[in-house]
Design goal:
It comes from Paenibacillus pinisoli. By secondary structure, this protein is mainly alpha-helical. It is built from 12 helices and 2 strands, in the order ααββαααααααααα.
Length: about 280
Amino acid sequence: MGMVEGSAQNIRTRRLAMDYASLYWTFIRINIKAKTEYRAAFLLTFLSRGIVWSTEFALIWVLLYKFQSIAGWGQYEVMFLYALNLTSYSLAAFFCFHPFTKLPAKIQSGEFDELLTKPMNPLLYLMSREFTASYFSNVAFGMLFIGICISQLKLSLSAWDFFFLFITLVGGTLIQAAAFIYTAIPSFWMVRNTSIAQLLLFDFKDFIRYPVSIYPASIQIVLTLIVPYAFINFYPAQYFLGKQDFLMFHPLFQYLTLAVGSVLFAGALLLWNWGIKQYHSTGS
């Protein structure tokens, strides 16, 4: 009897999960349709963002064309770091940029309280409702830049290498998504936390535009063990580029991007759930 009840409960749980997944996907589709309804505006946004990222890509190339290399990293090797960072950031920003950068304002205005009244997971509801379709352009150009670097570096990648590239991007996306969530969580207790967001989302990430090996040991330790952004691009790039630039760390680090991303993201979810339990409405 107990086994039958357990089986029925599992079936109900799976059906409920499928219903929720369908509902979240509906929110995303509505958002995409709304953005693409005005095709000219969507296309202009796509092109304008492409110009911005292409200009930044070109500036790195020009800088390295003059100096030839940075700490033994050539032009397209450094640009490969840039492309990995851009692509994983854009994939994370699809779901996380608007939900978590706007969370302080939503809490302050009382709008966040409305999310908690829904019979849905607040985090998933927030991420699907605030999905940012315009980041398609960022991902497209990030993948284009990865392709350019692979071509220019004449990298001969096997099926496993492409799979590992996919795994690397998934892990990097989890790291970037976790950063968005971590910077938003203090909003449950602080009215403004823009300095934390600026530090984690932008200031620290500026370091990984270039090989981490150019920085002092203290910075290398921070970017590896404390704010592990080096796993987004620097360590996995060692695998694809055939480098041995592991600094004071073990070569195994080149394979750990997905593991690091999974741990950080799981920690972000746990902290988010704890923050929700501690949250008190502003009464607005």
